[in-house]
Amino acid sequence: MDINIKPLMTEKATALSEKENRYVFLVSPDANKFQIKDIVEKLYNVRVTSVSTCVYGGKRKQRYTRSGIVRGRRPEFKKAYVTVADGQTIDYYSNI
C-alpha cells in the first residue's frame, strides 16, 4: 500500500511547530498512526513520540453557470499531527 504524505504549511501549523514541536501533514485517508510514524521517521530522520490524526469529510460545493447549476464534492482528507522528540526539528525544505 502506497501512503502519500505531504507537509501542511499554514500559520497555525507553523505556530504549533515553533511552540510545541508538533508538525502537521496531509496523509492518505487509509493510513494509520503506525504507518505515519514509520514514514516520518524514515523521511526526516527524527524520533516521533506521538501521532494524532483527524479525518475531515468532503464538503458539497455548487456554482451557478450559464448551463445551470454544477454540483460537486470536495475530497475528504486526513491530517496527522506528529510530535517530535525534544531537541529535534523537521526541515521541510531539505528534500527539495
Briefly characterize the structure.
The chain is of the alpha+beta class.
Overall domain count: 1
For the biggest sheet, the summary is: 4 strands, antiparallel
Helical amount: 10-25%
On the 0-100 scale, what is the average pLDDT? Answer: 92
Classification by helices and strands: alpha+beta
Strand arrangement within the widest β-sheet reads 1-2-6-3
Fourth CATH level, the homologous superfamily: RRM (RNA recognition motif) domain
Radius of gyration: 17 Å
Structure description:
The relative contact order is 0.26. This protein is an alpha+beta fold and 96 residues long. The chain is built from two helices and six strands; from the N terminus they run βαβαββββ. The mean pLDDT is 92. The protein has helices at residues 11-20, 33-44; strands at residues 5-7, 22-27, 48-56, 60-65, 68-73, 77-84. A hairpin with a 2-residue loop joins β4 (60-65) and β5. It has one domain (5-85): 2-Layer Sandwich (Alpha-Beta Plaits), CATH 3.30.70. The two termini are 24 Å apart. The strands form two sheets. Strands 1-2-6-3 form a four-stranded antiparallel sheet.
